[in-house]
Amino acid sequence: MPADQTKLLCESTKMQLKNAIQLLEGFLNNHSLPSLNVDQDEAMKDFYKDFLTDLRHLLVFSEVYYEKLGVSLRRPVFNEETAEKVLYETYHKCINLFYYPKNECYSEEGRYAYTGQDAIRFRKKPVRAVRDITMEISKIYEQLRENLTYYENDYVNQRRLQGEKV
Questions:
Q1: In sequence order, which residues have a C-beta less than 8 Å from that of residue 17 and are 6 or more positions away?
Q2: What is the DSSP letter of 111?
């Protein structure tokens, strides 16, 4: 990929991560376990606890890669190789963390992606705020996934052909 395209992709990825970070911070600053789990059973309490843990992890990784992209873009001379590595890591740390959360409170149902329905399916029926934040950030991470798909396979194959270990 030409350096100009890589730089533009870094800039757009950074902006999308910024938007996701703002949404995640807003949600996590205004919602806690007691506020989500009003008079519900132990299973729902565990569900919300796991959900909030997954969101916190996603927020941290998104912030880390937002900063790494910023560092790449602020360098006096744009280093394409470093930027490509950060984009690859962004795909594998942020996007995969969203779509494959550790606690599996939700998952992506691929069959719904083509029907116009929400592709995210929850393990348990959450309160509206949890559903809303998940659907909002899913739009951002879906766009990021589409933009960075190249870095899932081609980047790794290119590096291996050059004799590098990825």
A1: 62, 65, 66, 69, 90, 94, 144
A2: G
Q: Which candidate, 92, 78, 99, places its Cα nearest to that of 10?
A: 78
The Cα–Cα gap between 13 and 11 comes to 5
- By DSSP bridging, strand 106-108 and strand 120-122 are antiparallel
pLDDT interval class at 116 (50, 70, 90): low
Pick from 107, 111, 110: which is nearest to 51 by CA?
107
Angle at CA 131, nearest 5°, toward 126 and 134?
130
Q: What is the pTM of this model?
A: 0.88
Two structure tokens written together for 144 = 């990021």
Amino acid at 108: E
